[in-house]
């Protein structure tokens, strides 16, 4: 494999898994998860619509037959629509699940299910999209999101976030298999050990009228076997500190979790496992024999806080809240110095390359232009439909730069600026830990490395070659001034030669992949 492109800000730049693990696969966004605004029309009988929206039926998952029309051209008949969500079912702006295969085999652009989220807590209606965007730019195996204007029987129901569903289709596309157990974990799923009986964990209920399990099995439901989850919980809670690193690495994709956690901390996703024992999935990857972690419901982010103080500068190394979630997985991982440093390395790279003003502000400015008309005519913002917080178009405009109310306590842009700066100020490891100089041309760190290394380069342009001991050129790429991130997950463990050239000068050295 010869890499001939600069990898800085590559879409995959932060993929970092165990050397024998599988890489996340990133399916095409198509027209569903791009940055454009789309239109979705639902045609449904008057009686069915009345029943769907009846407050007395809000806690049922009955799916009503209807017709699906995407962007006024692609039509699928006999699909299902139902309400979705937990606490959001009490909102005035309902969220919907579109089930294309409810009554027949059907899909659209490879997907069978759409989640249309009203995101009524968020005055900007952009936070869930931005969270998914940052997650995926970081190379995490995470859901994607897009925007649709929803029409039901030709009546405009407002702007919705179209959020990817974590299901068999998702895990197949990310991990290459879908025959493992997929658990949807909601409050109070804290991964705390209770006993050795799998039925104990099945009996923990998310206390809502839906009466669903907190660890809800979404695949292999007939078998209903929780022994793999029990093994994970036992490993987390019953392994001694001295043996924990070796034990957890055999059953859980630690590096993937640390990278996702770093992303959650930056975007302020407090309603997650670490802080609130909520809103995540665990999938047992039957190829690697390890659990994978992926979050969902990332709308209470970018400064939306409900009683979580200082979300903009909360300590990155003490970010949880043990009174809300004991989070034994995270705290045990942080007791391993190597894992704590890996976590901070992910934070450092995210702040440098993704989560900063330079990278996110242009995207936000573009969204404001793209969504302007949809918000101006949105019935929940124009007063046609009653809304939960009375947000107006003026509030929407202001929400990107200013506090709107007690829970929209930061504008999105100030939150990004303050969180990225405070994270940098809270780093506990030295900036250049592990850096080794290749004469005066460049500095390489860390070395030894695992799934990536950095090259600090002081010239405008140069050339990098990584060469196997056999003489084969493994990486051949251009360097630019500043920090160059070199993704090396496909390299086998062992010793390599490095050659850097710039301004007619050549320097060589050695690299060790652990």
Percent of residues in helices = 25-40%
Major beta-sheet overview:
7 strands, mixed, barrel
- The whole-number mean of residue pLDDT values reads 90
Count of helix runs: 14
* Distance separating the two termini: 19 Å
Kindly state the number of beta strands. 19
Radius of gyration: 24 Å
Structural class: alpha+beta
For the record, the count of structural domains works out to: 4
Net shape:
globular
Order of strands across the biggest sheet? 1-2-3-4-5-7-6
Strand content: 25-35%
Low-confidence stretches: 1-24
List the helices and strands and how they pair.
Layout: E1 37-43, H1 46-53, E2 64-70, E3 74-83, E4 96-99, E5 113-117, H2 127-137, E6 145-152, E7 155-163, H3 168-175, E8 182-185, H4 198-202, E9 205-206, E10 212-213, E11 215-217, H5 227-238, H6 241-248, H7 254-267, H8 273-276, E12 280-285, E13 290-295, H9 328-334, H10 337-353, H11 357-376, H12 379-382, H13 393-398, H14 412-425, E14 436-438, E15 442-445, E16 452-468, E17 473-487, E18 494-502, E19 505-513
Parallel strand pairs: 1-6
Antiparallel strand pairs: 1-2, 2-3, 3-4, 4-5, 5-7, 6-7, 8-11, 8-12, 9-10, 12-13, 14-15, 15-16, 16-17, 16-18, 18-19
Helix pairs in contact: 7-10
What would you note in describing this structure?
The protein is an alpha+beta fold and 514 residues long. It folds into 4 domains: 37-163, no CATH class; 176-345, no CATH class; 357-425, no CATH class; 436-513, Immunoglobulin-like (Sandwich), CATH 2.60.40. It contains 14 helices and 19 strands. The chain has helices at residues 46-53, 127-137, 168-175, 198-202, 227-238, 241-248, 254-267, 273-276, 328-334, 337-353, 357-376, 379-382, 393-398, 412-425, and strands at residues 37-43, 64-70, 74-83, 96-99, 113-117, 145-152, 155-163, 182-185, 205-206, 212-213, 215-217, 280-285, 290-295, 436-438, 442-445, 452-468, 473-487, 494-502, 505-513. The longest helix has 20 residues, at 357-376. Residues 1-24 have low confidence and may be disordered.
